[in-house]
Design goal:
By secondary structure, the protein is an all-alpha fold. The chain has one domain (8-40). The protein has helices spanning 8-14, 20-31, 35-40.
Length: 42
């Protein structure tokens, strides 16, 4: 969803996270980077 251009808050809502910060923390733990940095990769 991030690669398709959706905003972080929209992705976190669709995945059922109560707060975008919770999604960001989980994403960083798994992927080793923030969702924003991941979405900016070519």
């Amino acid at each position: 969803m991030l690669a398709e251009g959706l905003e972080v808050h929209a992705v976190s809502d669709q995945l059922g996270y109560g707060h975008p910060s919770t999604f960001i923390a989980a994403f960083r733990r798994v992927m080793g980077t923030t969702p924003g940095a991941y979405a900016d990769q070519p």
